[in-house]
Amino acid sequence: MPSPHRRTHATALIAAATLLAAACGGSSGSTEAETRTDDGHYPVTVENCGHEVTLESEPTDVVMLKSAVVPFLTSVGVLDHVSAKAGVYPDGYFTDETAQQIADIDTLTDRVDASGHLLISKEAVVERDPGLVLGQTDNLSHASLDEVGIPSLEASGLCTSNLPEPGFQQIYDEVEMYGQVFNREDEADEAVADLKQRVEEITSTVTKGERTGAVLYPTVGGGTTYAYGNKSMTDPMLEAAGIENVFGDQDERVFEVTLETLLAKDPDVLVLLHSEGAPQEVEQAVTNLPGAESLTAVREEAVHTELFNFAEPASPLAVDGLERLIDELGDGS
C-alpha cells in the first residue's frame, strides 16, 4: 500500500499538472463507472510481474495504456471504468460495440515508435489522478507509478521479470485476477468457463502432425525481424494447433532472427504478427527478402498474417487467434 508521503508527492504532481492542463485548455474528464457495493471485498492485493499491488477500493478513472488489457476488462464487464486511454486500438480486435466504447474514451495520445511502443509522458498520466493504470512503459513502470501512489498492472505476458508460464491457464488466471481487482469474481468465473469450453471445442479436431512453424514480427519497409520462443503465448498456441514451434528451444519471449537462421529452420508454416498496416505489406516484408522463396512456408503459401494481440500477450484474444489460425492453416488432419 502506498505510504502517506508518496500520496502527498502524487497530489503535488497532480495539482501542478492540472494547473498546466487548465492553462492549455485541457480537461481530465471522469468515468461513469457502474460500481458495486463494497461488501468487505476490499482491500484486495494481487500479484503482478513479481509485485504485490493493493487496491483499497474498486478502481475507477482507470487509465489504459495498451490494447492487450481490453479483453480482460470486457470479460468481467468493466470497460466503463476506463476514463482515458493511450496507444493504438485497432478495430480488428473488437466487436462494433466494444470498438465504439473504446472510441468514446478520452485519448491522451496515440503516438507510438517504429516498434509499436507507446510514447507518452509520465505527467500526462499522473494528471488524471487515476485509481489504476493498466499497461506499462519504460517511463511508466510499476516502480515509477508507485512513487506517486498510483497502483498499476501489466499484462502478465509482457512482464519484464517474473514472467508466468505461458499458456491458456495463464489467461484463465489473469481473468480471475481482474475479477478480484474489480469485485467481479462471478463474472470472471463465468468468463473462464466459457474460454475453457471454447478452447476444448476449437482443438477437438486437431491432430498433432509433423508440421513445424514459426511466429515472426517483421518490420515493414526493412529492418529487424523478430521471432518468438517458448516464453511467449505463441508457443502453446502453435502446440494447440498441432504445430511444433521451430524456435521452441529458445528460452526467450522474443528475439531478433536472421533470414539465414529462418532458412536453416525452414518451418512449414509462418505466422506473421503486426500492430498496424496492411497484411499484404507485412507478408511482403518477409516474402520479398532475398532467398525467402526457398522457405517451405512461402512455396506452399502457408503464411498467415495476424494482428499482434491475437497471439501476444496471453489474453482472451489468443483464443480467437487460435481459432483463426486453425481455420486458416487447417487442423493437421
TrEMBL record:
Record carries keyword Transcription: no
PROSITE patterns tied to this protein: FE_B12_PBP, PROKAR_LIPOPROTEIN
Protein name: Iron complex transport system substrate-binding protein
All copies of domain Fe/B12 periplasmic-binding, residue ranges: 61-333
InterPro entries assigned to the protein according to its UniProt record, in alphabetical order: ABC_Transporter_SBP, ABC_transptr_periplasmic_BD
Annotated signal sequence range: 1-33
A Pfam family annotated for this UniProt entry: Peripla_BP_2
